[in-house]
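Students often ask why we bother encoding 3D structure as a string. The short answer is that it lets us treat folding as translation between two languages. Here is a chain of 276 residues written in the first language.
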Amino acid sequence: MRSTLKITLAALTAVLIYSGCSKSLNEPAPSTNKNSAQTLAISKQIATNLYKSLTGTYGGANIGSGIKAPSAITAAPKGGRRVNTVTPYCGMTIDTALYFDFLHTDTTTTVDSKYKFTYTCSSSALDGYTLSDSITYTDKSPTVLNKYATGQNYTVINNSADFSVVAMWGTIGTSFRQSNINASSHATTNYNYNDTKYSLNNLQINVAGASPDITGGNATFVSNITYLEVGGTPVTGGFWGTITFLGDHKAKMTVNYNGVTTNYSYNLTTGEVTEI
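And here it is in the second language, the structure alphabet:
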């Protein structure tokens, strides 16, 4: 019962963060400028969604916490040697699920999540973890129907003597469904859909600082975007490319769309994406 309460409070915190910014659509620029403003806006969405997923903004694990489960759902046994404040029980698994509704003014938010976290060991010493989780938030009001879902399946392994650097590989999938609705006619007046799958390739992450710094490795992605422009014109496009991490909270993005390849610099701290 106590662990369930902690899970609920942690998820509720994520709901408040998510709901506070989910009512307004951030649709890409008009399609008349597909390979500049539109690609830039979508590239920013793709990069930002990945970093927020890795750092637990939408729930789940925060890679910046190092090799330990989120404290809100961990009940560490007493005694024994600890690394990063976690008792290194080889194979210890946290497996849980959560579902609840939350009413905020005129909006009902529904949370549906599943979470499985397992510690891994080498020579009987804690060296990492595997994570498999999914979480879905749905916001519904007379004028808004928004849904955000993320699924993560990855492995994290210690890569330094002091546990300050970890390596990561696996997959992350994100899906946004943002819609505005006419309260009288119930017709959809605007929408922005974004489905992206990322493959994480040997990310090297320094977790010793205030925010995790991805110093090496890359993430490839495939993204499908659908949105309704002002004036009622639906636009659909496929994007694919690579985010190469450079350290110092910076990365280079290579984005392919409509047969055109564009390169961007990405600041993981500020979220700024700039064409280079």
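Translate back mentally: Confidence is low (pLDDT under 50) at residues 1-17, 29-34, 71-83. Keep this in mind for the problem set.
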